[in-house]
Q: What sequence folds into this?
């Protein structure tokens, strides 16, 4: 089973709202990733967690706040987003940072109004 | 930093035609190579991967790719495409050392449209 699940599938939020995206995997993977994908573009890496510790932050604005409460869960907390933050947010996991491939979830389609 | 080039932005084929999508990368060391596919409205799925060994790798749905180290290339091929192969195809590269650890570098993608 190589399934990564993400909730919600769709999210519409105003610029003053606070919301969270959730990602879950039960493959025993210890590396988890957040990506942002705009239409017809490749995914852009945002954050990487390894063994529940933040390993990479690709200079993402502080209005995006990741959290890894345990080895199976990854959250992305959103606050005061801008319309240009509207995109597909993808979660991925891999066995470890050095053991690939990365398996992707279906994504959350975020619209900021 | 690594870079990945997919020279074909949009490829249009008829069913049963042969397919080859180009992918070149810039890193000179040991790399791991991947092709992902994204069908309309769906998530990224792993098509095939290369870590080491036989440079010709076979993936799902009849796809294969050949790693040519001297050309820094990892081209994707399929002998006979089907309408259901219509999708966006992404080449991705990882080098598991130093500052690149944990980073998967994607090409810009190739949109394949297959006409029935």
A:
């Amino acid at each position: 089973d190589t399934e990564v699940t993400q909730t919600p599938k769709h999210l519409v939020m105003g610029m003053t709202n606070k919301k969270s995206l959730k990602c879950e995997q039960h493959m025993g993977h210890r590396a988890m990733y957040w990506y942002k994908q705009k239409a017809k573009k490749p995914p852009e890496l945002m954050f990487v967690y390894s063994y529940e510790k933040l390993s990479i932050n690709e200079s993402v604005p502080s209005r995006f706040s990741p959290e890894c409460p345990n080895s199976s869960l990854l959250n992305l907390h959103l606050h005061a987003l801008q319309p240009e933050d509207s995109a597909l947010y993808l979660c991925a996991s891999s066995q470890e940072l050095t053991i690939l491939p990365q398996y992707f979830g279906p994504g959350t389609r975020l619209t900021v109004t | 930093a690594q870079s990945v080039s997919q020279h074909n932005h949009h490829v249009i084929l008829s069913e049963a035609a042969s397919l080859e999508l180009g992918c070149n990368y810039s890193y000179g060391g040991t790399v791991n190579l991947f092709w992902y596919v994204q069908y309309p409205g769906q998530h990224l799925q792993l098509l095939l991967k290369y870590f080491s060994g036989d440079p010709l790798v076979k993936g799902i749905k009849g796809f294969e790719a050949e790693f040519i180290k001297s050309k820094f290339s990892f081209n994707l091929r399929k002998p006979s495409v089907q309408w259901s192969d219509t999708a966006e195809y992404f080449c991705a590269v990882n080098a598991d050392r130093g500052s690149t650890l944990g980073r998967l570098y994607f090409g810009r993608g190739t949109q394949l449209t297959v006409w029935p």
Notes: Chain A has no helices and eleven strands. The first strand of chain A starts at residue 4 and ends at 7. The radius of gyration of chain A is 13 Å.
